[in-house]
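Researcher: We plan to redesign the surface later, but first we want a full-length starting point. Tokens attached.
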């Protein structure tokens, strides 16, 4: 096992390969130790989660009260940051945070800086290496019908207000709202997909014009009326009919982590309702900006689109034994 050591003031950091997915880091100080797990290699569009524990604390926990944030850096330029939040019962001194990597991110060596305070000490920091892999995304063309063209050109106050409401939700980070640390399940049983995550889409308009966009989620090609279930536990933050996305649901899972469900034909949940993994959310449809029946499933972390499959395929919260 290869171990790299980095000196930082009175702390020693050892990075050890825990698996192909995760790295473990440990700091041994005078009054406490820090142990953390994080995924040190990602593809564009993936999230990075860091789970951190303060251990062997020689001070009263009430006065210790750690606070921390993580900064995502490329060539020492901060391109994203996120505060840590408590994930276990009160007093356990276990925290987590997530950082989103853009689907347009360039491959290479990146860095995560973790800045924290603990007890009466001033702010300390340490760096974690991160490698962003190369990845090519699919591309496709969608020809808009007259209904879709009308929706795309709609600048009504109602549509503007709906956009603001949605953005206000996904831009909110509620540090006490920890609902789920388990792997997600797929929201639909079908494996047929019509559009992939981060697919580069060319829209062709009836008048001959074109525009290019990045597809924000995964589209499941399923018949109207197919049951859609909650991939993980959370709280329903939005459940309403929108001009652009039709009958829509947004669920909060963690501080800054939201999943979104578009173009439904029916809703089976209400705003403010808590749901468990596997609960029925609604039925698929073709409402709003849609070429036909399908489910658009999207995941946002700190308002940035991230790959929904990542949460199904990986122990992203390091919660499994």
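Model: Full-length starting sequence:
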């Amino acid at each position: 096992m290869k171990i790299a050591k980095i000196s930082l003031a009175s702390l020693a950091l050892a990075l050890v390969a825990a698996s192909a997915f995760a790295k473990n880091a440990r700091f041994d100080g005078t009054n406490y130790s820090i142990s953390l797990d994080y995924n040190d290699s990602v593809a564009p569009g993936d999230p990075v989660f860091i789970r951190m524990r303060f251990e062997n604390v020689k001070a009263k926990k009430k006065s210790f009260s750690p606070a921390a944030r993580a900064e995502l850096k490329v060539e020492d330029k901060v391109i994203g940051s996120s505060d840590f939040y408590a994930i276990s019962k009160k007093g356990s001194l276990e925290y987590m945070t997530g950082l989103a990597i853009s689907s347009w991110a360039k491959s290479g060596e990146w860095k995560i800086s973790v800045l924290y305070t603990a007890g009466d000490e001033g702010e300390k920091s340490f760096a974690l290496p991160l490698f962003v892999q190369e990845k090519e995304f699919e591309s496709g063309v969608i020809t808009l019908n007259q209904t879709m063209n009308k929706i795309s050109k709609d600048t009504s106050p109602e549509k503007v207000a709906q956009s603001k409401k949605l953005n206000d939700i996904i831009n909110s980070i509620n540090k006490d709202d920890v609902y789920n640390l388990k792997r997600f399940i797929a929201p639909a049983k079908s494996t047929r997909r019509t559009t992939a995550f981060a697919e580069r889409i060319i829209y062709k308009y009836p008048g001959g014009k074109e525009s290019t966009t990045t597809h924000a989620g995964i589209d499941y090609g399923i018949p109207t009326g197919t049951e859609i279930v909650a991939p993980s536990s959370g709280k329903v933050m939005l459940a309403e009919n929108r001009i652009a996305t039709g009958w829509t649901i947004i669920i909060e899972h963690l501080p800054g982590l939201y999943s979104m469900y578009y173009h439904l034909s029916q809703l089976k949940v209400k705003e403010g309702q808590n749901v468990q993994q596997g609960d029925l959310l609604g039925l698929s449809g073709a409402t709003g900006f849609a070429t036909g029946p399908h489910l658009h499933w999207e995941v946002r972390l700190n308002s940035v689109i991230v790959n929904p499959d990542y949460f199904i395929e990986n122990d992203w919260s390091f919660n499994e034994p």
